[in-house]
Amino acid sequence: MRWWRHREREQDLEREIRSDLELEAQEQEAKGLSPQEAHYAARRAFGNVTWVKEEVRVMWGWTLWEIIFRELRYAARTLRKSPGFAATAFLTLAMGIGASTAVFTVVDSVLLKPLAFHESGRLVACWESVRFLGDDATGPNPRHVEVWRQRATAFSGLTYLQNAAMGLTLGAEHPRLTSAVVTIPNLFEILQVHALQGRTFIPEDGVQGHDNVAVLTYPLWQDLFHGDPGAVGATIRLGDVSRQVVGVLPANFHFPSGSALRSFRRADQSVNVAPDPAIFIPAALDITKFPWNGNYGNWITLGRLNPGVTLAQASAQLNTIQAQILGDPSWPADRRAGALGAWVQPMQEAIVGGSRTALWLLMASVLSLMLIACLNLANAQLGRALTRSRESAVRAALGAAKWRLIWSVLAENLLLAALGGAAGILLAKTALDLFMRDTPVGLPRLSEIHLNLNVLLFSTLLTFGASLVSALLPALRLLATDPQASLQQSSSRSFGSRQGNRLRRWLIGMQVAGCTALLLVTGLFSKSLLHLLGEDKGFDTAEVAVAEVRLTPQSYGEDQSRVNFDDAVLANLRAIPGVEAAAMVSAMPLGGESWIEFVQRVDKPEQESPLINFRWVSPGYFETTRQRLVAGRFFEERDRNLSNVVLSEGEAKALWGNDDAINGQVKIEGRIFTVIGVVADSRNTSLKTPPARMAYVHYKDRPPFPTYFLARAPYASGLVSAMRQAIWKYDPEVTIARVKTLGAQLTDSLATERFETLVLLSFGAAALLLAMLGIYGVLSYSVVTRKQEIGVRMALGATRAKVYALTFAEAGVPVFAGVSVGLAGSVLAGRAVQTMLYGTRAVDPAVILMVTGLFLLSAVAAAFLPARRAASVEPMEALRSE
Amino acid sequence: MLILRTLLFGPAHGHQIAKHIQRTTDDLLQIEHGSLYPALHRLERKGWIAAKWEAAGKDLKREFKYYRLTTAGKKQLLAEESKWKRLTRAVARIMWPAEEG
Q1: How far does A67 lie from chain B, in Å, by closest CA?
Q2: CB pair distance less than 8 Å for B33 and A61
Q3: What is the ipTM for the molecules in this complex?
């Protein structure tokens, strides 16, 4: 029976009974009774009409749906009666569920969902461990991979690829920087991806002379050709090479960016976030040109395991082959066992490994926030249940079943949670859209993030969980209600049950514990971020703008042509009005490590020679970035044709100790350089790592392809277009990757940390607010119910100070207990996130002190209003009102 | 069971069923007509009887809700009957053991 047939059924019964009565009356009339008497007789014969109707209705029974519907209607009416509570609860739940849903969407899409490739569980990434590099997870040397491809049976295929950023031109516009993947042609075969239009790569694409082809991703196809199928066959210019588009990849194809594909074995790896690749081009390589022992870390190797092969088996097989390579006569270096190893990890792990801790941390904090919100709601409901205990007592006394009473509490929460859940999902959708539109966060698989069935399931579960948690305690209270006792208490004299208050204090304690833990983790992250921002960089980012130019081997293959380019652009830059200094460098400041090389003292060749970072710079570089000179001199124009080097202080100390390094000689790649200056250490690779050891060489020595021009002017942000013009004035065909201020680069390099901290801060603030509301709610309720008691105390001589103390003490126990539990919990949480913190320990006394202080202060603030109300009770008034 | 047995003779409406039971049991089972209806609705819900409004009476002017036995109802009646027979036999055996032998 459906509820809308309810009325129909009711009429039906009415009609049936009436006809029975009429028939009986007719019969009686036939026996000679008057119509009136016959009517009465019929009634007598029938019995109690109302009772019969009631019985029939019971017989029909309430279907589950009817019960829910009725209770929900009742709940809606009750909630309308207290709009303040309803609105607060609705908002709390909507925010809670919204935030949880948004975070879970990210966690689900990034961590949980398998990669969108056929049998993606068999896709792996392979890494080499190379002893002399001290690196156990470097991108393999392609020459080794070719040997693996010949000998390994564990894989159905192995490929290697490289990420690149290239200028892309269609027609006659300035080239725009595009993220590309250069791969040997079997990549798509291994991923088992077919083209949407045209074809993917065929083996001939890997032959020199036949490699001028490209495969576009779906977004780039849409962007460049607006989805025109005629794109296949079109010619584009990529990195100054004309290429024919041979295919377009399907829309659901997502390939990780180079910054995302890493082994994540080393926590300190700092890589600039790169966009996902938009275009794929084949690599036509002469593998014999690769050295046997070198070219590590430049290529990424992916493979597909044969069915049934485990990771361990594959790793073991690769290691066997590595040993064979070590034993090969062509191997030029260290032949000892273990000098060269290899291992295999799931491709998904290689992509998302770095974000796992951060995402789970976010998930944990958003769930604890949700729990706090639910506890708050439970607390508020409990308060309402207490004030409504007379109502429920009356209902119980009139014979309402206990489960019906519980049902009505549950229904109320269910209604709130359902509304809040729906609003929350909408909220999450909006938040994610905003987040995705402009995200500086280096999260892998970003393009794959969207709400899906898993997420909706999660939100629904969360919604029901929330309503259960928040209804459970009030419902239990109801069960314990003794109708008689609560009826006996006149409402004006209610002292509030001791038990009820104890329960609410427990809730407060739990809330405080969760909130403290969350705040402490937030505190750790904030401190870590402040630490990073406040770190002495060793150079000055203010008033400097940087332009990144990508020169191509096709147009600028000759060293001299690059030197000419650099010289001309530097002259143009210096001619811009307002520019105080201009320089160039071979790597983006704060852009991670780039060129690393060994350095030896010529006079002490036996000395350990650590790998150090190299920068090719122009004269004026140190002046533009305002790096401090420790000894010797900076580069000048006269260094152009000399083999001179400037070392960082740390490197000079490592090589010469306390001796004077100036005029000392070092050997780099077999060539001898003279040290002309020592500059102060600077964190110009990353703020997150200690200052790197650096060597600076004049740019004439090896003019870089990616070139970074720096210009210092009072209004650096106004320089952006002037710098573009200065570069394109010399050559309008070059690709300018980006122009921005160094301040912006600094901000971007900490984007992930800032994002994490921002999210945690907002969660922490919300949790604090909720906890304050909770404390306030419990105390004000308690003050209202204890008004007379307080009046009596004051009449008996209690001072206002005593009343304050009394109220504060009531909140004190749960708050202190909660804070200590929270502290203990945060120590565990702190350990888990230790690797994400910089200059901050998991147990940081300063943070603990500040958070505890902040929390206690907030608790006092929350308790103050109820306490003042308690203290302002007029004894006479309170007593009179009895 | 009594209602089901009554309906075995053909469809009937509430009033007829009540009268029939009253008559056949020689007014021994004096049931209030009203108490019949909850039972009828329960049987209908269980699917043992079906109901339909049909015109009847002298000039077919009035409609009555006629109840009719369903197949499931017939089966149920048989089951109930045999159960009842066994029960009465058992009771009889206890009450008048001699007669049984």
Answers
A1: 18
A2: no
A3: 0.71
